[in-house]
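Quick one:
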Amino acid sequence: MGVSLPPKEANLFKLIVKSYETKQYKKGLKAADTILKKFPDHGETLSMKGLTLNCMDRKPEAYELVRLGLKNDLKSHVCWHVYGLLYRSDREYREAIKCYRNALRIDPDNIEILRDLSLLQAQMRDLSGFVETRQQLLTLKPNHRMNWIGFAVSQHLNSNASKAIDILEAYEGTLEDDYPPDNERCEHGEMLLYKVSLLEESGLLDKALQELRKRESKIVDKVSYKELEVSLLVKLNRLEEGEQLYRVLLSMNPDNYRYYEGLQKCVGLYSKNGQYSSEEIDQLDALYKSLGQQYTRSSAVKRIPLDFLKDEKFRDAADDYIKPLLTKGVPSLFSDLSPLYVHPDKVDILEKLLLDFEESVKTTGGYPGRSEKEPPSTLMWILFYLAQHYDRRGLYDIALAKIDEAMQHTPTVIDLYSVKSKILKHGGDFAAAAALADEARCMDLADRYVNSQCVKRMLQADQVSLAEKTAVLFTKDGDQHNNLHDMQCMWYELATADSYLRQGDLGHALKKYLAVEKHYADITEDQFDFHSYCLRKMTLRAYLEMLRFQDRLHAHPYFRKAAVGIVKCYIKLYDSPAKSSNEEDDELAKLPASQKRKLRQKQKKAEARVKKEAEVKSEEAKVGAVSKSGKRPAKPVDPDPHGERLLQTEDPLMEAGKYLKLLQTHSFDFFETHLLSFEVNMRKQKILLALQALKQLQQLVPENPDFHRCLIRFFHKVASRSAPTTDGEKLISGVVEAERPTFSQLQGKTLVEANTVFLEQHKDSLMHRVAVAEMIYCLDPNKKGDAMKLIEESTNNLVPNNGSLGLVREWKLKDCVSVHKTLADVFNDHNATLRWKVRCAEYFPYSTYFEGHHCSTFSTNKDSKQSHAENGSVEPFSSNGLLENHDTLKNLAI
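Output:
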């Protein structure tokens, strides 16, 4: 234990440490082997050799050597420190903290170990421990600036802003009057801004403003200085000074929307919900007209009034704003104005305005009331805007007519093809949308955005392999889609996962969803290096903002979507588990000889593909073997590229529960969190947890049809259970009965009565009627006919389009697709499914799902059906339960 080395070997040990720090791993290994020849049991050398091997991707050997070194020298702080570094490299932070604490018991004043421990405590948000460690560091080395700042930040993170202020003031007391020198002015200025923000956070607004103005000469970032000053002035209700300062900021950046918002607050003309009286609108109009004269080149000063102006004033302002952008040819004009589409009256004005532009440019060559001629491209951009306008209103026929006219006018503009692709996607023709997006991509092969849009359309059309080939055109290696994962391209992985889920390929879907989840784990780990970097560089405000962002990271929409997808996959896997080999053999024996041959051929091809992939992986492993020499790391080979192992999980609901817990922690206000919680807990027979999910759903979405389904299903299942026998079952039953009256839908009503009342309240809503029909069938399977009749008698009412083009149908395409799947899967009635398909084909003529007469697959299907008819045959039901013969569909509908 604790054998000391002779001077020669001690110098060699220092060389090992230096080689590790400079990443000269071969040199370090050579020095370690030299020491171990004479002292084979020297614990610290064994540990350092293990740490060096860990950096060369030889982890098993590394752990073995470090553990052996620790065993040989348990009282060495170096061995414990190295063991902690090993755990830290594998992200085992809790174990690393234990190792560091053991090292500190041996050497309590070791600066390096204390610094490493503080980083881990900040990473794990062990805030009380973080405060303690930073205080110890400051005590040991008070002449180091980073220790003062680190202690202040630790107190701030531990919700003790006033203590943090005291620490910073004590630190400033140690500085000389002429501090800082020129090379530290930026860092010191950032520290002063951080101190003022702490005072503001503590509610000491007057003191914060005094401190800020007192230190003005030492603050380099003048924009941040003014923004912080005006924020304090507004909070102190010193609005006149705030107004003057906001005008100064606007002179520096007249396109910053936040400055205009602040100016409105200072003059008393700001409303959070955007509602203003006529008098306030006149005052705002006058304000922005004066600002417009001052900042003639600002687009923000012209765009903001469109949010609050009404009627003729809105028309005049929109006219002035839109004309120059159409003449210039700004493709993003519709995106810029799309927030206005929540106001029907403004949409009507915009529509009439653009139609007047179109007619005037076509007839006179210029805008209404102007003698100047417009360039020919102006008409094309007017048509381009109108196409997007009608697409937003769901009038796809008119939208396509406008975009086709624009394409005839100028067939070389890529944006026209992209927008037509989007219109077809909204209409339900995903295949045609993908083809058009690919055409747009081919017009400019160097445009990454257009390439990404094309990939997105292909994935929406479930063309996964084609989308992958298109996406990798912009990756580093060209033919390796792993680069998309390395670049954390989450939109692509989510869209691919959604496509696989639609196709029923749960293995690939889970693989992609879990890849997104891994990205968020990596983002969490990426903050580790910033704990020391930000303190060293004094980027304190950005550091705090980053930490707060990390704390709410798993509430991000992408993570939420991935977690929801994972839970859905595991629920489907539980409901339809993967078949065992014996079950597959039994099913194979029942098949006809011709189908057996086809299946065997498929199996042979699959085996050959797997064999080829294994050979490729072995070659990659050989090529990557240089990593053992320390030259470069080899890329790890994915042992489960198709997600087959993920499907072999013994308890899918347990796996689903892991991600459901994350959703419940970080997305508690998201209704789908509780919907999935209900589904999982009902399958687990955890009645009280399912009841808890129901109560949350009632608070969030009391009128939602999915909540109604869950509510009726839950109490129907509880009522169908056998009488409780154990004390636990009796307790659960008592809780359920006590909670039943808390659901307003069930107060004093049976489940059948509650279902009927719900129908009466929402009889004009398609999705509510479908939910009621499902519950009728659930409560009494003998009423299947009544339930389906309720769905089929739903009327697709004409509703006002809030425009000059009359009425539009109320139903949405995605809802009708959902109803179609319900008829096929829940009610299992082919005729009703076919009747619904024919009916929806009329409402959605561009939908490939319903084979509308305008969709891209209609003519192809019609030709194939005609050939079948001539042969006297009719195609059977396909895998999704649809009869492909269109004429038969119409006869059934009649």
